[in-house]
C-alpha cells in the first residue's frame, strides 16, 4: 500500500463524524407512529424520509461495481470492499485518495454521497448518481459542475469549506440537528435526533404532546389548546375554498391569518441565511433566517427563478399567496405529493370546465401545452438534472421578454418563435388586460442598470402595498448611500410596514445616514418583534456606539451590537460572518476589534479576498501603509486571479505615487474583470497621471463602449480630451453625457 493511500484510509477511519443524540423533548418517529399510523405510512419513502440515511445495501442507489467516470481530467472509481462503499477520487491536495461513503444524501432524481473528513466535517461528493430511469437518461454517474473545471482550491470543489454539509445542508436534511461548531478549533461535533426529516422537524419536539395524549387515554387528562405542541399547523378557523359565484374564482370562506405552516416550510424551502439556531418550527421565518431578495444572479428582474432559490421566495410573489393559499392546499404534507395528479390538483379550486379546457389554454387536450404547470409554473434545471418549478404561479409575459430579456413559458416551449409572436398570440386569445400594463420587474430592471436614475420609480414600488413584499424590499435594496430628504420621507413610512422584509430593507437603505437620522429612524427598530429586522437595525446604529448621548443609550447600543454579533456567529464557520463583524466594529470605531475579526476570517479561509481588502484598508486608515501593501500581496499569493486585490493594490500604490507600478496592478484588475467599469475608470485616470494620455483615452473609450450609460467614464473622457487638446472628442462625449439627462 502506498503512503498516500495509507494516509487517506487513516483519515477516513479516524475522522470524527456527525452522530445521533436525542434533542431535549424529542421522542422519535416510532413513538409518533403509535397514534398516527396513516400519516407515518404516507411519510415512509417520501423525500423527507430519504433526505439522508446511512449507506447500506438498501439505501445506496449508485453503481459501486467498479464503475468509473472521468471529469476534468480526474478519473474516479466507485467500488465495494468489506461490505462498505468506497470511491477513489481527487482529494484536497490534488492527489487520488480512497474514501469511504458514510451516508446517502437525497434520493430522486439524484443521490449524493457524504464522506467524513477531519474536524467533524461531512463533505458531499461532487459526483452524483442519476436515479432516473435509463430511458430518461438516468442510471449513470455524473458531475454536478460538468462545465466548470474544479481544482482543489476552487470554492465548488467537493472538499472545500463552501461545500461542507454541516453548514450548507445539515439543517434541512435531519431532525433535531445541533451543528456544534467550535470556532476556536474550527471543528464540528454535529448531532441529530433523527438522521432524516421526521415528524418533529415540522411539528416540533413531541414529548409534551405524547404525555398529554397518554394522560387523555388513561382517563382524567385533558388536551391543552395546542395539544402539547409548540406549533399548531392545522387550520382551526373552519375556512375552506369555494368558488365565488360573482366572478367564478376561488376564495377562502375565512381569510387566512396564521402563517405557521408557511413559515415552517420556508425554513428549508427558501434561499435564506441562518441568523439564529433554534429548531422550533412555526415561528416567523425572520426569527431564525434572513430571506434572500430578488437579487441579480438569483432571480430575473421580474422575479422568475434564475439561480437555485427553492420555493418560498417565488411563492410569496404570487396572487395565490396573497389570497391565503398555503403549501398543504396543493401538497400532502406527509408524502409531499400533490393532492391530485396533473391538472386535477389545480381543479380542486379552479373550475376544470373553465380552465382545463382548450378555450382557456388553447392547446390540444392532454398535450404538454395543456398542463397548468407548463404555462404557470415553468421548470428550470438545477444540479444538472433536477427540474424545479417556479412557484410564483405567474401569467406568461412575453412582452417582458422583449423589453427586459426575461424568459417566458411560451417561448420556453416554442423556441423557434420569438416573444413578439407569443405576445400576439396571447393578445388574440385573451385581449389586452389592464394588469399587464406594468410590472415590478420593469422597475427592478431599471434599478439594476442605473439606480440613481430609477430612484423615484424604486421608491414608488417600495411604497406600493399592492405589490409583493419581496419585490418592494428588493427595490429598497437597490437604493444605497445616504438618503436625501425625499427618500427619507418614504423610508420613514416603510419602517412601520406590516411586512418585516420591507422594514429590514428600509433599514438597510439608511446606510450612510447621519447620526440624527439614525437616532430618529433606526434606533426605535431595535425593539422590532422580528430578529431579522433587529439585526439590520443594530447594524445601522453601530456608528452611534462611538458617541452615545448618555449611559442608557450606551447600554442599549452595546446590547444591540452583541445581538448582531450573535446573528453572525450563528454561522461562525463562515469567513463572511467575521467580515460582517469587522465592518460593524469599524463603524463603532473599534479598529482593534475589527482587525481581530478580519484576521479570524482569513484564518478560516486564507483565500478569502474581502478579508485581505478590508484588512489592508483598515491598516491604511491607521497609517500602516507598508503593512497594508504586504497584506494585499499576501492575498495575491493566495488568489492571483482576484481582480479586486489587484485593484486594491493599485490604489495603494497610487497613494504612494508609484505610478508605473500602480498602472501595472490596475491593468491586471481591468483585464481580469473587463466588465467592471470602475476598474477601467481608475486605470484610465492612473494612466493619464503616469503621463500616458493617449493610452488613458483609449482605455476609457473602450470601457465606455461596454458601459454606455456610465457617467463617470463620460466625464473622465470629456475632461481628459479637453485638457489634451482633443476638443471635438470632448464635445462628442459631452453630447453623450447630456443625452443621459440629469443624474
TrEMBL record:
The protein's name in its UniProt record: Cytochrome c554/c'-like protein
Q: Which InterPro entries match?
A: Cyt_c-552/4, Multihaem_cyt_sf, Multiheme_Cytochr_ET, TPR-like_helical_dom_sf, TPR_rpt
**Keywords carried by this UniProt record:** Signal, TPR repeat
Residue stretches spanning the membrane: none
Task: Tell me where in this chain the Cytochrome c-552/4 domain is found.
Answer: 31-57, 161-204
Q: Any signal peptide, and if so, which residues?
A: 1-21
**Signal as a keyword?**
yes
Outline the TPR repeats, range by range. 575-608, 643-676
A single Gene Ontology molecular function, please?
A: oxidoreductase activity
Does the entry feature the keyword Signal, yes or no? Answer: yes
The record, for SUPFAM superfamilies, names: Multiheme cytochromes, TPR-like
Superkingdom: Bacteria
Pfam families for the chain:
Cytochrome_C554, TPR_16, TPR_19
Amino acid at each position: 500500500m502506498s503512503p498516500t493511500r495509507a494516509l487517506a484510509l487513516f483519515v477516513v477511519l479516524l475522522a470524527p463524524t456527525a452522530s445521533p443524540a436525542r434533542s431535549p423533548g424529542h421522542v422519535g418517529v416510532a413513538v409518533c407512529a403509535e397514534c398516527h399510523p396513516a400519516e407515518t405510512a404516507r411519510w415512509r419513502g417520501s423525500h423527507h424520509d430519504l433526505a439522508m440515511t446511512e449507506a447500506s445495501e438498501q439505501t445506496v442507489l449508485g453503481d459501486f461495481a467498479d464503475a468509473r467516470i472521468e471529469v476534468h481530467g480526474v478519473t474516479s472509481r466507485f467500488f465495494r470492499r468489506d461490505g462498505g462503499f468506497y470511491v477513489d477520487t481527487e482529494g484536497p491536495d490534488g492527489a487520488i485518495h480512497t474514501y469511504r461513503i458514510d451516508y446517502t444524501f437525497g434520493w430522486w432524481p439524484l443521490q449524493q454521497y457524504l464522506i467524513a473528513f477531519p474536524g467533524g466535517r461531512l463533505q458531499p461528493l461532487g459526483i452524483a448518481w442519476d436515479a432516473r430511469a435509463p430511458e430518461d437518461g438516468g442510471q449513470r454517474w455524473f458531475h454536478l459542475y460538468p462545465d466548470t473545471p474544479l481544482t482543489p482550491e476552487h470554492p465548488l470543489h467537493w472538499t472545500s469549506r463552501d461545500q461542507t454539509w454541516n453548514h450548507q445542508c445539515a439543517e434541512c436534511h435531519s431532525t433535531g440537528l445541533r451543528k456544534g461548531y467550535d470556532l476556536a478549533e474550527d471543528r464540528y461535533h454535529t448531532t441529530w435526533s433523527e438522521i432524516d426529516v421526521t415528524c418533529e422537524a415540522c411539528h416540533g419536539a413531541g414529548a409534551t404532546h405524547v404525555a398529554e395524549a397518554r394522560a387523555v387515554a388513561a382517563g382524567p387528562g385533558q388536551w391543552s389548546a395546542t395539544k402539547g405542541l409548540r406549533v399548531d399547523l392545522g387550520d382551526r378557523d373552519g375556512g375552506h375554498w369555494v368558488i365565488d359565484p360573482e366572478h367564478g374564482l376561488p376564495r377562502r370562506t375565512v381569510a387566512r391569518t396564521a402563517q405557521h405552516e408557511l413559515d415552517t416550510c420556508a425554513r428549508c424551502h427558501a434561499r435564506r441565511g441562518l441568523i439564529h439556531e433554534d429548531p422550533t418550527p412555526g415561528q416567523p421565518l425572520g426569527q431564525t433566517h434572513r430571506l434572500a431578495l430578488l437579487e441579480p444572479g438569483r432571480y430575473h428582474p421580474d422575479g422568475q427563478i434564475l439561480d437555485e432559490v427553492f420555493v418560498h421566495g417565488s411563492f410569496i410573489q404570487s396572487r395565490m399567496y396573497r389570497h391565503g393559499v398555503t403549501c398543504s392546499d396543493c401538497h400532502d404534507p406527509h408524502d409531499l405529493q400533490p393532492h391530485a395528479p396533473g391538472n386535477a390538483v389545480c381543479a380542486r379550486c379552479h373550475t376544470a370546465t373553465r380552465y382545463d379546457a382548450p378555450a382557456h389554454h388553447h392547446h390540444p387536450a392532454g398535450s404538454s401545452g395543456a398542463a397548468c404547470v407548463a404555462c404557470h409554473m415553468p421548470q428550470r434545471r438545477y444540479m444538472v438534472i433536477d427540474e424545479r418549478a417556479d412557484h410564483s404561479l405567474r401569467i406568461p409575459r412575453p412582452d417582458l421578454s422583449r423589453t427586459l430579456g426575461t424568459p417566458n413559458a411560451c417561448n420556453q416551449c416554442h423556441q423557434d418563435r420569438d416573444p413578439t409572436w407569443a405576445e400576439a398570440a396571447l393578445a388574440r386569445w385573451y385581449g389586452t388586460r389592464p394588469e399587464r400594463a406594468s410590472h415590478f420587474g420593469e422597475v427592478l430592471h431599471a434599478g439594476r442598470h442605473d439606480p440613481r436614475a430609477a430612484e423615484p420609480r424604486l421608491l414608488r414600488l417600495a411604497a406600493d402595498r399592492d405589490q409583493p413584499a419581496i419585490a418592494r424590499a428588493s427595490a429598497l435594496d437597490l437604493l444605497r448611500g445616504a438618503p436625501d430628504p425625499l427618500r427619507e420621507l418614504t423610508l420613514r413610512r416603510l419602517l412601520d410596514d406590516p411586512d418585516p422584509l420591507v422594514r429590514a430593507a428600509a433599514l438597510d437603505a439608511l446606510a450612510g445616514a447621519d447620526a440624527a437620522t439614525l437616532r430618529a429612524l433606526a434606533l426605535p427598530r431595535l425593539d422590532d418583534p422580528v430578529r431579522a429586522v433587529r439585526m439590520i437595525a443594530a447594524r445601522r446604529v453601530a456608528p452611534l456606539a462611538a458617541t452615545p448621548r448618555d449611559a442608557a443609550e450606551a447600554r442599549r447600543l452595546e446590547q444591540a451590537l452583541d445581538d448582531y454579533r450573535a446573528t453572525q456567529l450563528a454561522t461562525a464557520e463562515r469567513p463572511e460572518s467575521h467580515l460582517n463583524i469587522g465592518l460593524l466594529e469599524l463603524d463603532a470605531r473599534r479598529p482593534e476589534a475589527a482587525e481581530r475579526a478580519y484576521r479570524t476570517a482569513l484564518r478560516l479561509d486564507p483565500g478569502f479576498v474581502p478579508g485581505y481588502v478590508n484588512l489592508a484598508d483598515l491598516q491604511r486608515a491607521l497609517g500602516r501603509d507598508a503593512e497594508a501593501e504586504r497584506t494585499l500581496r499576501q492575498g495575491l499569493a493566495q488568489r492571483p486571479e482576484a481582480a479586486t486585490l489587484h485593484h486594491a493594490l493599485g490604489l495603494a500604490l497610487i497613494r504612494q505615487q508609484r505610478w508605473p507600478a500602480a498602472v501595472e496592478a490596475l491593468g491586471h484588475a481591468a483585464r481580469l474583470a473587463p466588465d467592471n467599469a470602475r476598474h477601467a475608470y481608475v486605470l484610465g485616470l492612473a494612466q493619464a497621471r503616469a503621463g500616458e494620455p493617449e493610452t488613458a483615452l483609449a482605455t476609457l473609450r473602450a470601457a465606455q463602449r461596454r458601459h454606455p450609460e456610465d457617467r463617470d467614464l463620460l466625464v473622465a473622457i470629456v475632461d481628459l480630451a479637453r485638457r489634451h487638446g482633443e476638443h471635438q472628442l470632448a464635445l462628442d462625449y459631452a453630447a453623450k453625457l447630456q443625452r443621459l439627462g440629469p443624474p
